[in-house]
Prior knowledge:
402 residues; 7 helices
Amino acid sequence: MSSLKKQNGVATLLTAMVALFIMTISVFLVNRVTLIDMLNSSAQTQSSRAKEAAEAGINYALAQLDNNGTRAQYFCGNYIRSNTTACATPSSANAGNAFVIAETALSTSGMAFTTTITRSDPSGPIRIRSIGGKQGCLSGITCTKSVIDVLLSTDPLFGRMPPDAVSSPGYIGITGSICAQNASGNGGFAARAGMGLDTTNNLQGTGCAASNANGLYGAIGTTDKNLAAMNGTLQNKFTTDTGYSADLESSFFKYTFDKNESYIYQNANERLGGAHATSSQSLNTFANSGSDCSKTCGKVIWVSEQGLFDLGNGTYGSTDAPVIIILNGAATITGSPVINGMLYVSGSLTVTGTPNINGAVSVGGAVSGNGTLTVLYTADSKENSEQIPAGFTMQSGSWRDW
């Protein structure tokens, strides 16, 4: 009997131990599942926060590129500027550049982003890559990160550049000297005048030699390729073509840029004078910074004043990052500036200085004066001017993260 009781006690003990073991395993498994759920939830939270930080980096870069006031600092002409070195010459040397926006902390979350902007082809897409994650672990440290790539297409500000080196629906007559050459492969005329062309004392320098078949030279009416005065051509175009208004000034602006004045004004990087000025400076004051590429390169400068403009001896724009200067009224140009890009004058233009323009000049009124005007219109100046952006469009399917 005693032996049976002992057996029953052992069995009971074993049963209790098995039950306890099973309960322990069950508790362990439940706790393990709970722990895994907590870890997964934490990882998902970190992943979500990292993605939000990466998106913040994309949004920051987009805002910088879309802002007329900050856009130019990211470009070397149509390539991206390096954040550590100056723009290189020729422009193709900037193809490998990357502008890196250093680690930037988000205000409250403890997260941060770093963003890189690149462009390998001057007419191709712009790539923005943003990495988001915890502060301090975006470079080389293992942590939860999110990477987002975006490709942007450029929306050009101008529909086109003028087809000629010098153009005006009025009269072109400078009693000093003029040298105009169109080597852009666009249009085919060095100068077009609506009312008449008087080139009594043209330069015969290397840019306008009789043998290069590209420009004006020599005495009145002597032009390469018989580039005769285009009497009445521009004005006739405005009155016969659909889309041009009866207002000659507005029509000539559209003929020049294939855009309306209000659109270009709203998208100008700098507006000097007028009710919506971005700066209280006059162009004469602004001219003092003419040799500072950051002030003029790749920018559109709209001047809502008229009168005498002394552009000094400054260099405005560059071959890779041309400037577009729009003088909304009559103007007299003095000084010896170098303008890389485009000069547009809505009224008449009087030249008393010696401006050298690597690009084009379009004047809504007559062109006169006793100065020296030299204009060389090349394929590079035309193409780079046409690539000045009004904004950017995100390419479909370019957003991906992993």
